[in-house]
Amino acid sequence: MKTTKLIGLALALAAVAGLAGAAPYVELPNGSRVAGTAIRALANGDVNLTMDMGMRTFPKGTYVKAVADKPAEYDQAAAAIKGQKYDAAVPLLEGIVAKYRYLGWDVEASKLLAQALLGKGDAEGAVKAYEQLFIVAPAEKQNADTVWGLRNAMLQAKQYPALIRQLDAVAAAGNRVEAAKAQTMRGDVQLAQNNVELAALDYLRTAILFADVKDPLVLGEAAYKAAAALEQLRDPRAKDLYKKVATEYGASPYAAQARGKM
Q: What percent of the chain has pLDDT over 70?
């Protein structure tokens, strides 16, 4: 998936993030929320919540999460990314990450920070931002959008051996959809190294061997990329694959491009 599409997805998710509103508050292990008027996290992870009756301290480990009001800089940064003003977004997001540690918005800002760095061409910085995010919020390792964002950053940063190891692990895990995406990204790795024939084979493996997945987004991407690689190799079968994408995978964002190739 192209960087601009990933950034668009990140912004769309940010717009509906569950952190918006109902803050500041502290969520307890029993599911209840303690609301306040101001919140501050200490370096050791303790949280001070100011309420009408005074301040209450929640030691680290006694609460599930603590959430502050959304910082104004967050929307400013999101708008900057949407306008492709990545240099303006990065310092805003870095400031949120530092100031809102343990308060929810550090995690949300970290996600956008990685996308902003990738947008400005700093793929290695984006990888580091994702790695730092996983340290702060280990649960994000289970977030498919986040981990595939990391893998895309690794691809852009040319961290091929480490990326291939990740893709091997994904394929071995047994989830067919995730394995299909991993197989397609294997093709991306080959194409990035100008191994067009090997890339075509990897894309075709996804399109053929994972046909049971029946996901137009996954299969449409694989089939389109296979067609593009075959076209680069002057293989006439490219036309048939473009037609397949346009007719069978109309829900794919690649369908419109495929129709232009028919």
A: 91
209-229 exposure pattern, b = at least 16 Cβ within 10 A, e = fewer: ebeebebbbbbbbbbbbbbbb
- For the chain, the farthest-separated pair of C-alpha atoms sits apart, in whole angstroms, at 75
**In this structure, are residues 119 and 90 in contact, taking their beta carbons and an 8 Å threshold?**
no
Whether 242 has a pLDDT exceeding 70, the answer reads: yes
Task: Report the topology of domain 160-259.
Answer: 1.25.40
Instruction: Give the domain ranges of the chain.
Output: 3-143, 160-259
pLDDT band at 258 (very low <50, low <70, confident <90, very high): very high
| pLDDT over threshold 50, residue 11 | no
What mean pLDDT comes out for the span 7-19? 45
Measured CA distances, 240 to 32, 199, 244, 248 (Å): 57, 18, 6, 12
The domain 3-143 is placed in CATH, from the list 3.30.420.40, 3.30.360.10, 1.25.40.10, 3.30.300.30, at 1.25.40.10
The pLDDT tens digits of the residues spanning 136-168 come to 899 999 999 999 999 999 999 999 999 999 999
How remote is the C-alpha of 138 from its chain's centroid?
15
Domains 3-143 and 160-259 share a fold: yes
d(CA 245, CA 80): 34
The rounded distance, in Å, linking the Cα atoms of 126 and 237 is: 37
Q: How far is Cα 129 from Cα 120, in angstroms, rounded to an integer?
A: 14
pTM above 0.70, yes or no: yes
Instruction: For residue 49, give the 3-state DSSP assignment.
Output: strand
